[in-house]
Amino acid sequence: MGEYIIIRPDLGIFFPSVDYISTYIVKLADEDREEKKPILIDCRDIRDTDYTAAKSFMALTTMFEKRGQKLAFLDVRPQCQKMWKSAGIKNESFWLSENLTENLYGDAGIEDENATRMVEVVSQSGETE
């Protein structure tokens, strides 16, 4: 308990890069199928997006709901959030990093500094850093 996977794409999420990112997220989830660590997409560096990305992320949220695994989007800019919501992504999928502990653990009282983080960073070029 206390572990989660964080993915941090940079700049923008558009077709075709969204396909790579989605495939990468599914691969991480498949490798972690038994533990079902929450997967968080840190969107603070995403400046723009398109509807193809929104639909792809909607498909991911549906898949993760069926798996019983958390998938959330952190610190999404308003223009991206609007686009993704138009594709059907629910408001509860959008988290602020300042509320991360509460969103992950509810009232369990676990302090975020006690959490073990597993960080995977995806650059725009598609390379893992």
From TrEMBL:
<feature type="domain" description="STAS">
    <location>
        <begin position="1"/>
        <end position="89"/>
    </location>
</feature>
<dbReference type="InterPro" id="IPR036513">
    <property type="entry name" value="STAS_dom_sf"/>
</dbReference>
<dbReference type="InterPro" id="IPR002645">
    <property type="entry name" value="STAS_dom"/>
</dbReference>
<dbReference type="Pfam" id="PF01740">
    <property type="entry name" value="STAS"/>
</dbReference>
<protein>
    <recommendedName>
        <fullName>STAS domain-containing protein</fullName>
    </recommendedName>
</protein>
